[in-house]
Amino acid sequence: MQAMSEQPNNIRWYYEGLSKGVFRASKCKDCSKFTFPPTGCCEHCGSWDVEGAELSGKGTLLFATHTGPAASHPRFEKGGPFVYGHIRLDEGPIAQAIIQDAGSSPEDLRALFEKGPVPVQAATLQMDDLPVIAFKLKG
Prior knowledge:
- With 139 residues, the chain is mainly beta.
- Helix content is 14%, strand content 40%.
- It starts with a strand and ends with a strand.
- InterPro entries: ChsH2_Znr, NA-bd_OB-fold, Thioester_dehydratase-like.
């Protein structure tokens, strides 16, 4: 994890990173906490003194669910149904993202739940218009 020179309030900076497999957040210079996805101010203390930071992409899947029959956005119509999860990133923030390599049936989701928190690694899922962050199950 290293500090980045670009400003995190530039959304293009975030998506350009994703397209290269680089996962970015903002890091507060006052409280040292991370905000993901990156914003122009710290979500923890409200400071505007933030800088761009690169995340490890490692985290823990806390829980998962699946989409219904309708996609949440037209960019997701081709690939569904998706499994979505809440991931605690190793750097602290909670991310909501697609979980790859997880079945969407009730039985698959129950088995995943019964495993308890599961380690995951971030990946980039290239859609027709923009890359999106997704996570792959580890182990």
